[in-house]
Design goal:
By secondary structure, the protein is an all-alpha fold. It has helices spanning about 5-35, 50-70, 70-75, 80-105, 110-135, 140-150, 155-165, 165-170, 175-205. The chain is built from 9 helices and no strands. The chain starts with a helix and ends in a 6-residue tail after the last helix. The chain has a single domain (about 5-205), classed as Up-down Bundle (Four Helix Bundle (Hemerythrin (Met), subunit A)). The structure holds protoporphyrin IX containing FE. Protoporphyrin IX containing FE (HEM) binds near residues 26, 32, 46, 61 and 106.
Amino acid sequence: MKNPAQVVTWKRVLLASLFLLSLYYFYRAVSYRFVAPGRLGPPNPIGAGWYYTHVLFALPVLLGAPLQFLSELRHRRPVIHRAIGKAYVCGATVAAVTAVYMGAAGPYEGSRLSIGITGTLWLFFTLAAWRQAVNRNFPAHRAFMIRSYTMALVLVWLRLMFDLQDYLFFYVTNEDLRDSTREWASWVVPLVIVEFWISWLPQLKGDRAQ
Ligand code: HEM
């Protein structure tokens, strides 16, 4: 039997850890692209405006999402939950579309398909979550929101896997192949883990509500 108080504590620890990791990797991504000189202009084929738009709209997603999973906020301050939710949907929609463009226009051919699928899934999960909220189908809303946030966190997963690559991808010695493997693994692995947790496991246990 699960102790509900323990579940709440673990959930808060998980959300706080994701939030802190997000801040750290966001800081690193911004330093890499915007602070270091010469990373926005030629020969980079992506115009600076795309980066600024992407980051500006992605920021409310990164900061707001962990709050959305706190049940106290949802129950006691539904107005705040709805306001952050609208900012999330708007931010994620623009950030996902700009991500797909930047992936296609960028110089890394091995990343194009992976980024295209990630961005499209991020957009789809976000709009599906919003639609299910409007339809008041809250179990489906929650599941799609978890999927959407998992995709948003590609910002974290990709860089975390980069930092741990000597352990995670020690068997891929060619540098280009390793980059490509990391790019795919950064969203496929978290999405599979999440699907196992929210969908496959409940079905295996015979929970008909899923
Ligand atoms: C809330 C989540 C996200 C935040 C806060 C965020 C933030 C950023 C930042 C700060 C950059 C500039 C750093 C860099 O160029 O390496 C960036 C670039 C980029 N992001 Fe995101 N991002 C998020 C999610 C995503 C997702 C899910 C995708 C994939 C669909 C994505 C695709 C891209 C692409 C393609 C670039 C350009 C990379 C390059 O030119 O090398 N982002 N993002």
